[in-house]
Specification:
- The complex is a heterodimer of chains A (115) and B (113).
- With 115 residues, chain A is mainly β.
- Chain A is globular and about 35 Å long.
- The termini of chain A are far apart.
- With 113 residues, chain B is mostly beta strands.
- In chain B, 0% of the residues lie in helices and 52% in strands.
- Chain B has no helices and eleven strands.
- In chain B, strands 2, 4, 5, 9, 10 and 11 form a six-stranded mixed beta sheet that branches. Chain B has a five-stranded antiparallel beta sheet with strand order 1-3-8-7-6, with no helix packed on it.
- In chain B, a hairpin with a 2-residue loop joins β6 and β7.
- Chain B is globular and about 45 Å long.
- Classes of the chains: A mainly beta (115), B mainly beta (113).
- At the A-B interface, β4, β5 and β9 of A face β5, β9 and β10 of B.
Chain lengths: 115, 113
């Protein structure tokens, strides 16, 4: 079946502009995660959605970052007033949460470049 | 944010060699995971470990969950060219959020010229 998809695959924007990154999880997966991967670094947790529960936003680096998950499926990560340090690959993952975090399947990521 | 200490940062392999990498932390984890990431792709899970002392194999890969719960290693035996990529350890802290995996910075495997 189809895996996690993300769009766009690449996004170049000017400093100060807002961007929206989209994630389509695997059908039936109740949990969805966003991570940020800077060059040469590991993955940094941003936010976690699980079913209808309130999301775990503990990893969001500033109030310029927000995310929504509509209808328990598609998620959008929004970065307002982008800064150059926001440049990174943003990865989305989904899982059947009942089986734990080891079932996370990752999308290919969106590479964001802020000029 | 907090990260695991993963080493080595990079290594060169010759086909047929065994490879070893590890992760350590000052915190206790109740789950350890090992991922591989190819260029332009998301990480793919290789091995998951749930119990202290657990030793798990997946083909030529072997990983162990340290007794202290603060470390894990991954071994690759008889490496082949397609093993090149970046390997990440990840852990779930006791008491941490279900979704809040903590990742190491990765070990980049390359082929010796």
């Amino acid at each position: 079946g189809a895996g996690v998809s993300q769009s766009p695959s690449n996004k170049v924007t000017e400093k100060g502009k807002d961007v929206e990154l989209r994630c389509d999880p695997i059908s039936g997966h109740t949990a969805l995660y966003w991570y940020r991967q800077s060059l040469g670094q590991g993955l940094e947790f941003l936010i976690y959605f699980q079913g209808n529960s309130a999301p775990d936003k503990s990893g969001l680096p500033s109030d310029r970052f927000s995310a929504e998950r509509t209808g328990g499926s598609v998620s959008t990560l929004t970065i307002q007033r982008t800064q150059q340090e926001d440049s990174a690959v943003y990865l989305c993952a989904s899982s059947l949460v009942s089986l734990g975090p080891d079932t996370q399947y990752f999308g290919p990521g969106t590479r964001l470049t802020v000029l | 944010g907090q990260q695991l200490n993963q080493s080595p940062q990079s290594m060169f392999i010759q086909e047929g060699e065994d490879v070893s990498m590890n992760c350590t932390s000052s915190s206790i984890f109740n789950t350890w995971l090992w991922y591989k990431q190819d260029p332009g792709e998301g990480p793919v899970l290789l091995i998951a470990l749930y119990k202290a002392g657990e030793l798990t194999s997946n083909g030529r890969l072997t990983a162990q969950f340290g007794i202290t719960r603060k470390d894990s290693f991954l071994n690759i035996s008889a490496s082949i060219p397609s093993d090149v990529g970046i390997y990440f350890c990840a852990g779930l802290k006791i008491g941490g959020s279900q979704g809040n995996l903590i990742f190491g910075k990765g070990t980049k495997l390359s082929v010796k010229p």
